[in-house]
Automatic annotation (TrEMBL):
Recorded superkingdom: Bacteria
Species of the source: Legionella pneumophila subsp. pneumophila
InterPro entries: Haem_Oase-like_multi-hlx, RmlC-like_jellyroll, RmlC_Cupin_sf
SMART domains according to UniProt: Haem_oxygenase_2
A Pfam entry, by short name: Haem_oxygenas_2
Protein name per Swiss-Prot or TrEMBL: Iron-containing redox enzyme family protein
């Protein structure tokens, strides 16, 4: 009998998927929507290139640790997660192009979506396991203690000014910085509350009805013009940005995707329900203060911008945070006992951490763009390893990626366009060199028949 049990344990679904993960991933990447593409801005919502070589060669044996959040590994894992989650969502491209119809069929191919679902548990563990290491729940928590902590944490935050808003205002190019913020918001806000929709089916009492009230608000009470994603489309258009779903896919920072993916993760996995309501409270409670600052910042920088999306949330989310606290969190503790408090608190702290990481990431990307404007180059640095030489043909694309070290980047022949963002690319010609800080997103497009460039890891001396 013991031999039979041991054999069954050795063939659990998780172990089987672990053993065949790379094989399944390789099949998934054969979907034409995910193969390397000859453009930076996808033509429709279904085409989402995944840098196939990088995706197949990163280390999937260990989860992303906190110091690895701003790495290529984390970017790839979160792009995979986004694409797999969103194969459950319906996106209809505008127009009737034959190519879009083909991409539509490929993106939603049931065999690829089934393989994606098999990959999800491991990818989720790789992306979010570090939260368990970073968040420690200490002491005995009661309902009054929890509610007091949640309320007071938000009240303390509301005494502070947004460092991200300060980074935007302090940028050499605040218009670009403001638009970079909107682009990072796009993967969430253009299909807002889609993750929440995963949490609604089933039967779980009054809390289900209260959550539905929040959901109905997000969808504009069935009026398309007041749906929150429609409001954000108007914001994008007023800033001269393209509101097409994932038009700026190549610009997405890993940490921006983590915000979207974490909601999908805890809404999909029903055992994480109590973590979800903690996460939901943090986002609903923190948004009014943040959006009030964002609205003011955007109006000062872009006088013609439509900020109704942000202004609406200043009002409605004050109502939502009260609903979530009093009619979902408090009632759940009354029903299921104080043992659920740790999960609620974990979800609250997890999203607070993820939001801070995303804000820091974007501020650094804004700074990187500013440095390129200034032709910044360090006065002192040390070479850490041998250089690598790359040769590219005309219009060959190297899509968005990150480096683990600061890198010296020098064009030695020909010409290329370097993109620290979609908004302000720079042209690099032969003998032109720049420094790409570690963890900074970038992509390139060769402009010559035989472009050559060299990259070399460096260590920049303090104060250089």
């Amino acid at each position: 009998m013991n031999k039979i049990i041991n054999k069954l344990e050795a063939n659990t679904p998780s172990k089987h998927i672990q053993q065949h993960f790379k094989e399944l991933l390789n099949i998934y990447l054969h979907n034409p929507c995910f193969t390397d593409a000859a453009f930076l801005n996808p033509p429709n919502p279904y085409v989402r290139p995944l840098r196939t070589s990088d995706t197949l060669n990163i280390n999937y044996d260990s989860a992303v640790a906190l110091p690895e959040v701003y790495t290529n590994k984390n970017l790839i894992i979160n792009k995979l997660l986004l694409n797999i989650y969103e194969q459950d969502l319906l996106f209809l491209a505008n127009g009737n192009a034959c190519e879009a119809k083909k991409d539509f069929a490929n993106f939603y191919n049931p065999y690829y979506t089934a393989i994606g679902k098999a990959l999800l548990p491991k990818l989720e563990q790789l992306a979010f396991n570090f939260l368990k290491d970073e968040i420690e729940i200490i002491g005995n928590w009661t309902k009054p203690k929890l509610l007091d902590y949640l309320i007071n944490t938000i009240l303390e935050q509301e005494k502070e000014t947004s460092e991200l808003c300060e980074a935007i205002v302090g940028s050499n190019n605040p218009i670009r910085a403001a638009k970079m913020l909107l682009i990072q918001m796009a993967p969430d806000f253009l299909s807002e509350a889609s993750a929440m929709a995963r949490a609604l089916p089933g039967s779980f009492g009054i809390e289900q009805s209260e959550l539905m009230k929040v959901f109905i608000d997000e969808y504009g009470y069935g009026v398309h013009e007041t749906k929150h994603s429609t409001l954000f489309e108007a914001t994008m258009l007023s800033a001269n940005l393209n509101p097409t779903i994932h038009y700026y896919y190549n610009d997405y920072l890993a940490t921006s995707l983590m915000l979207v993916n974490y909601f999908h993760c805890i809404c999909k996995n029903k055992s994480d329900w109590f973590k979800y309501i903690g996460t939901l409270y943090y986002t609903e409670a923190s948004i009014p203060h943040f959006n009030k600052q964002i609205s003011k910042t955007l109006k000062n920088i872009l006088p013609n911008i439509n900020t109704k999306y942000f202004d609406e949330h200043v009002h409605i989310d004050k109502h939502h945070r009260r609903m979530v606290l009093e009619k979902i969190i408090a009632t759940s503790i009354d029903k299921y006992g104080e043992e659920i408090i740790e999960d609620i608190l974990f979800g609250f702290e997890a999203f607070k951490l993820l939001q801070n990481l995303a804000d820091t990431d974007l501020a650094k990307q804004i700074q990187f763009s500013d440095q390129l404007d200034e032709s910044y180059f360090p006065s002192n640095y040390t070479l850490l390893a041998e250089s690598l030489t790359f040769n590219e043909t005309e219009l060959e694309i190297t899509s968005a990626h990150l480096h683990a070290d600061d890198e010296l980047f020098q064009v030695t022949r020909g010409e290329l366009i370097f993109y620290p963002n979609s908004l302000s690319p720079i042209i690099l010609k032969a003998n032109h060199r720049i420094v790409i800080p570690k963890g900074r997103l970038h992509s390139t497009v060769s402009q010559s028949a035989n472009t050559q460039y060299v990259v070399q890891p460096i260590e920049i001396s303090t104060g250089a």
